[in-house]
Specification:
The protein is an alpha/beta fold and about 725 residues long. The protein is built from 26 helices and 23 strands. It is globular, with a radius of gyration of 27 Å. It comes from Ligilactobacillus animalis.
Amino acid sequence: MTMMEFKEQKKYVLPKMVIKTDGYEVPFALYKLESVLRKLGLATDTDAIILALLAKLADQTTLTSTEIYDKLTATLNELGYDAEAKAYVAHHQADEAKWQEETDPTVRLGRLQSKDPSLVHENANKDSNVFNTQRDLTAGTVGKTLGLRMMPKHVAKAHLRGDIHYHDLDYTPWSPMTNCCLIDFKEMLTNGFKIGNAEVESPHSIQTATAQMSQIIANVASSQYGGCSADRIDEVLEPFALKNYDKHLAESKEYIEDPAKQIEFAKKRTKKDIYDAMQALEYEINTLFSSQGQTPFTTLGFGLGTSWVAREIQKSILKIRIGGLGREKRTAIFPKLVFTIKKGLNLKPEDPNYDIKQLAVECATKRMYPDVLMYDKIKELTGSFKAPMGCRSFLQGWKDKHGNEVNSGRMNLGVVTLNLPRIALESHGDMDLFWQIFNDKVKLCKTALDFKVARVLDAVPENAPILYQYGAFGQRLKPGEDVSQLFKDERATVSIGYIGLYEVGTLFFGPNWEHDQAAHDFTLEIVKQLHDACVRWSKETGYHFSVYSTPSESLTDRFCRLDTAEFGKVKDVTDKDYYTNSFHYDVRKHPTPFEKLQFEMDYPKYAAGGFIHYCEYPNLRQNPKALEAVWDFAYDKVGYLGTNTPIDHCYKCGFEGEFKATARGFECPDCGNHDPKTCDCVKRTCGYLGNPLQRPMVHGRHEEIAARAKNIAPGMMTDGE
């Protein structure tokens, strides 16, 4: 009897559930047995072996993974596959040995001390040469091993295999930390807060307000593991700038009789105060180091304020970024700037704030930031308008029990990312099998995310006073209060991420599937299925599950390396040595910005928990109108758009543009200079900017980056892969 005949006749009752060694129940899946036998070189004998195995199971509806292992081994021996049985046992033993190694702190610390690149280069925003980063890496190395043992074992093993990725394992689950957030600066600056031994009152000037902001950012970044954002910062800081104005106006009345000139004097002084305050904030953020050994990943959202004060804050942010940092006027890496475009406010020449949009365009051509948010589209996609938390993570629209819309003070509880290309590779072109494996892995992600949520609930307000007791999360809890009230009723998000949609399309429809409607519909359905699962989970749990289009420099590499070891070099999939982030267009191809946006625009509807689009351009300094044309085209099509344009600068010969990628690093194409002291080399890496000449951990990957750049020129990688 063939397996097909068996399935049709249902001669045996297939087991329904398998109990893993950690006690979790998962659906029984024939494809897993078929995969094991295929790896043992028994693809042609699979049906006979499985039928013999099922006969041994005696119509059991539930069995343990240990029983399956024992009976499959026995079946192989009975059928004469002695060598294959030994190989199966050896693989099982090697897997267990690998588990023991990965969860042994001593072993991982040894790898760290020997400067294993996979450990010291994992985060492009961390310089592993400095002591505080080394301390964080040491703690994180131990935290990972302990965290793996804390979570369900089958989830931990799936992470190690590369089926999924449990993000930020160096911090969680060992510590019950939250991920990223929108800090409630308005609440904190209005009502005061406490850091350390200092009780801080509400500021009486914009200079003090931005100084307090920098301290809040440093403390929040040290109390969570993700990015933090300041939403609508021009409007938040406006009342404090008006205090400057009132002070200057009162002062002017002592010396100036003309009321009009009094106002002129007060405005002039206030504008200078605003510029100085925003410049100080820029410098303070770039000189901060959190306890994680890195500059806090900070985003400033602005652009909706309409008063002269709010306008001045917006202009100052942009002018300061254009001006650059220090004597050499280098490009600031942080904070990430996100400018909002809104119809009727700044979109068209007749709009009152159109001049600020022009300044934003100029800034993007020279410094890549700001990225832009399209006000109407963000509301449509996420249910309310707000800045992203860090790179691309978005909260959904939410109202409190009084019906008030709340955005700031909310947070994300964590991300687990699904390796989509592996599912496609395992399905071997069988679409039905793809969906079966997909559904199983999605359930696995749900188990991992449930564990993330459960662990965060173990926190108490005293663990992170700045978050829970002093306003960063909006509500102020008392010591010992239940932190879940800040997360439940869908106030917080928790996200399932995905990588490699392009590679999945390639495996089923070939490497030029971008213009194939059937391929487009299939890849869109994948994201929709993730979305639909999140909707169900949200209703079941009371936490807002969302789909996150994962950006990850290290993960696009890690998943691909693991899959190459498993499946070999697969053309246009694993042979590139990297996977494509989220839903992005293949970075080796050269679509126009308009083609790229039209290709990508459908996916965020189902991935509103995290998304961004990028377009790559040549040097735009002399042609800002070209960038504005793309922004205008994108307004009603995408919600969040970033600019990738060459802005490298050689202080030795004066070159401005795109540095050359070589095996030894990036260098000036005119004079060959690659000294970080006399070069400003800035590249966008998965959503944020980085300087590969000043960051040793990125420098260590120059050969890989250079190899990719050869396939992607002109310009650097569109999406940072």
